[in-house]
Write a structure and sequence with these properties.
Distance between the termini: 26 Å
Radius of gyration: 15 Å
Strand content: 15-25%
Helix content: 10-25%
């Protein structure tokens, strides 16, 4: 990724925010187990993880959308981190990971959901009550993913 362009994009994706910092629920706190840091995959220029769950497999058949949903976060270092949403989190009330499990409850630029159609072709959204941005930041999010080597479609 072009480092000077990456820096420009991070400025436009920011400011960094703590979980729930951009929501309409000020003071909302992180639930039990949600800030436990889980290992995630750094997707900057790496394509899909080796054990990827594709939404659309090679035969064109769709897997269950829920089973193939990844959470994505651009963290405070500018890393594009992803984690399969169905990853169990026995410490959490929801029993699966959330965006704050990717950051350990730390600040991030943006977050949302992601589906792999191929290792480089993805669908994303900005659906994250913890780190989601606004409509004016959408074009910068798309460009960030494109600079990381992905062909991006975005869904509301």
């Amino acid at each position: 990724m072009n480092n000077s362009r990456k820096t420009e994009l991070l400025i436009n994706l920011g400011p960094l925010t703590l979980p729930f910092g951009r929501t309409s629920e000020p003071g909302r706190s992180i639930e039990k187990g949600a800030a436990v840091l889980f290992p995630s995959y750094n997707a900057n220029n790496n394509g899909a993880p080796g054990d990827v769950v594709y939404y659309n497999d090679e035969g064109g058949r769709n897997n269950n959308k829920k089973d193939s949903t990844y959470l994505w976060v651009i963290n405070d270092n500018g890393d594009l981190l992803i984690l399969l949403e169905q990853t169990p989190n026995k410490n959490s009330l929801r029993k699966n990971v959330c965006h704050t499990n990717i950051t350990g409850g730390a600040e991030a630029y943006q977050g949302g959901e992601l589906w792999f159609m191929t290792s480089q072709k993805i669908i994303i959204n900005r659906k994250s009550g913890r780190y989601g941005g606004n409509d004016s930041q959408e074009k910068y999010i798309i460009e960030y993913f494109e600079l990381s080597g992905y062909e991006v479609s975005i869904t509301p």
